[in-house]
Amino acid sequence: MTVKLIMALVVGFLVSSGVGAFLVPWLVSIKVGQPIKKIGPTWHKNKEGTPTMGGIMFIVAVAVVCLSVGFSAIREGELAHIYVLVLALVFGAIGFLDDYEKLRHHENTGLSAKAKFILQLTAAIAFLLLLRLKGYLSPNLYIPFWNTYVPISEPLYFVFAAFVVVGTVNAVNITDGVDGLAAGTCIPVFLCFTAIVFCWGKDFFAQGVYAAGLTGALLGFLVYNFHPARVFMGDTGSLFLGGSIAGMAFALDIPLLLIPLCIMPIIETLSDIIQVGYFKLTHGKRIFKMAPFHHHLEMGGWTGRKWKEKEIFVLFASVTLVMAVISLLGVTGRYSF
Question: Which of 266, 242, 246 is nearest to 320 (CA)?
């Protein structure tokens, strides 16, 4: 299993970086440039026109990994990686529609919030029902670190789970605002999922193939997306990543592990909610220089020191890596023999 997990990572990297060598020039040639929000940091205006939808390269890469390295699991009827891939592809398709609308109208607003929510919630419910039907999921909520379960009624569990999926997807989407940030934040998450599978054993090989493959694919994507970015992942990529993270958490039946694992996207989301709420309550006052949190750091919030994009990347990736190690320790004893 170890060899195949390493193979998945390597194949993911090679395919993603290889696709990027052709995709990025093509996106430039057809002028699918990313519109930049007018209310954002002024220095982001020089990013205007950078091609978007670059997430296609890691989407293609992980699909190739699932169908090649993961073919042995498919042959044995283990389809968890395919289920996660399909969920992520649906979210990626929603993101693609959003990107298309932005490009068509030459604005940084795509699908309406209501349309996106309905589509995302429908996809989440369908995925969760499928996992339950196939036996990957139970309404007994696993509690990491305590290594115990809390029984929950199925209707309540599915309401909780559906909103966790949608919330995770949108939290990752919000994090995609600085060169390399979403990819750099997600890599430790998928490394953690890979390590969990390694600890739990071959029964979870299919999930491991997906996690390892996407880790490599994101590393390949960073070749083009690290500051200064030559391509952005767009909502096509960020929604796919959010769907992948949520899908993996439920395919491994460890949804509560998303709290420590996704601490930085959670902080990003909370900063947005707090900012909007405080602004409305105080009729125009702000807690953050700008939300989400990475923009607050960029604009020198609280300390006056303006963080560079590479520094924010290192901060988010480092904190997530530490939390990934802690998360791993919280579940390693689940299937001890």
Answer: 266
Number of domains into which the chain is organized: 1
Name the one residue in this structure whose structure tokens are 């052709």. Answer: 22
- Residues in a beta bridge with 143: 148
Phi, psi of 148, rounded to the nearest 5 degrees:
-140, 175
pTM: 0.93
Nearest by Cα to 154 from 134, 139, 176: 139
Q: Residue 337 falls within a domain, yes or no?
A: no
pLDDT tens for 76-126 read: 999 999 999 999 999 999 999 888 877 776 655 567 788 889 999 999 999
| Domain annotation covers residue 336 | no
For residue 21, give its domain range: 2-331
Alpha-helix runs per DSSP H in the chain: 2-29, 56-68, 71-75, 80-105, 113-134, 154-175, 181-200, 205-225, 234-251, 258-261, 263-281, 293-298, 309-331
Q: What is the pLDDT of residues 152-209, one digit of tens each?
A: 999 999 999 999 999 999 999 999 989 999 999 999 999 999 999 999 999 999 999 9
